Records
---
Amino acid sequence: MSVTVIVGTQWGDEGKGKITDLLAQDMDMVVRYQGGNNAGHTVVIGEEVFKLHLIPSGIFFPKVTCVIGNGVVIDPAVLLEEKASLEGKKCSLDNLRISSQAHVIMPYHKDLDAAQEKKAEAGRIGTTCRGIGPCYVDKYSRYGIRICDLYHTDILRAKLEWNIEEKTFIINNYYKSLVSYDLDKMLGDYTGYGKAIKQYVVEESSALVNDSIKQGKRILMEGAQGTMLDIDHGTYPFVTSSNPVSGGACVGAGIPPKAVDEVLGVVKAYVTRVGGGPFPTEETGAIGEELREKGHEYGATTGRPRRCGWFDGVVMKHASKINGLTGLAVTKLDVLDGFKKIKICVAYKHKGREIQAFPTDLERLNQCEPVYIEMPGWEQTTCKAKKFDELPQNARNYLAKLSEVAEAKISMVSVGPERTQIIKL
Ligand code: GDP
Ligand code: IMO
Ligand code: MG
């Protein structure tokens, strides 16, 4: 199989980083296709814990070309920090490639993000405040700054003049957060960033990816966030500003849909969400707390405690349909060790009627109650299991139920954060 898309099936943090790293050892290329440094992808190799925000999770294999695709938004200062941190741990970035078409997150994007969140008060999305949304807004408004602009001082100056004038006006007058930007300093900073990353920049990253496809190379597309955070298919407006779903990989990397062979959905054995917005199976009491503590559910980017709850089959079915999943990687099964009873949401009840389809209208979603079935838990620990047969029978039954709901086969089960804690089916 030449192209596999890895996609989050919930609200992010399903363990995409770990699964990408695992599969990357047999790949030639790993491509990030959307999002930015709102993502936090954890890879644990022995004692070392790496938290990647922009650099693809295939970077630990020197033979793997790692591409930051055109669909990603890049904060160059964060990219350089990540580069320094990885190089400090003896990880080479020689195989990194950055699309010159990717958009650049500017200081005013971060200020706008923060100002919008502040003003929204109770209705706030709970963004990562990394400037992601405002940067994508500029992209679609067609006055965004792309990586290629960092190499044309005149163009960059002209774009900055316009953007600084507009953003300063909006932030100061509408949001009443006082900001001022020094155009010459910003110009100097960003041309400097451009120079610092120049060795990695490729004019048309899609050509690089498509050439690799033609040569029969094995390529992984690493999604960030998850299906329920998708701007079109998630719980709008409590979503991110890009398309994490599998279809987003085509646009964000510049490949044709027919090039995609496999879509691997990463599925946490329960569900978490960071930030605001609906979460039908959320457990706000002791169970949620237990899941959070056992699963170390704290954001890899912002450190915020993640909201936790039971596995949601309605969300799973939605993700299966939108992404066309051909396989599942179930993660964090070990976190459920020791629970006497485990609940699975199999439908929602809306005004007395059971529904199976995820309501896209938030008003309707808010009127829904999850319908649960209960399955017996298992007392043993699963974190040392190397084969499916070594899992307790009740854990195998639970996995079978997840697979049935998702209408997709499980191809791997993760039973711990470490690279080696994986069962391949
Ligand atoms: P991503 O954003 O989808 O890459 O996921 P994150 O890295 O934000 O969050 C997943 C967290 O769970 C990280 O801390 C991982 O190290 C950890 N993790 C991944 N798989 C497993 C697993 O099977 N069991 C346990 N206990 N932790 C895991
Ligand atoms: P990974 O790739 C979990 C959430 C934020 C917020 C919403 C919008 O690690 O799974 P944004 O800053 O994107 O405008 O915030 O999306 N969010 C994530 N939640 N994992 C992520 O990435 C996320 N990236 C954004 O918490 O609710
Ligand atoms: Mg994460």
---
Amino acid sequence: MHRVACPGSFDPVTNGHLDIIGRAAGLYDEVIVAVLTNVTKRSLFTVDERVEMLTEVTGRYGNVRIERFGGLLVGFCAAHGITSVIKGLRAVSDFEYEMQMAQMNYQMAKVETLFMTTNPQYSFLRSSLVKEIARYGGDVSGLVPDTVLSRLRQRLAQE
Ligand code: ADP
């Protein structure tokens, strides 16, 4: 069975993430979306909420599973029998950091990283920008799935 991990914070999941997850689901037997629980930056949504949204929007794929992970990605991979990771690349600016992570993960545990280039319509899209635009009343429909859109509106109305 060819299984791949798709790690990230997904705070919240965007159409850019979903595009990569869907394309990966067409290539692998199983895609495990690994939601980062490390508390390094303040998140808008709790891990449980992020997992709920991901579960809802990936429900149409029979071979996508959502899991949470903390600590090292290579530890998560070992625990789940995963030998490769897929990462979306938006622009050259993503590349330097991603290359270091990929090389380190290979060096540590022989975990391979495969890069998938973003669909050009999502190359500017990142969760932090979506939150910022939504916070100031901008329209983010078309950038995130509908369920995320309504949760964003709800959450920001409470702030
Ligand atoms: P973000 O930068 O949106 O907070 P994450 O940390 O959740 O993203 O990223 C998880 C993975 O998804 C990373 O590999 C990242 O490059 C990829 N990704 C994020 N946004 C996009 C996009 N618009 N197109 C392709 N890949 C993306």
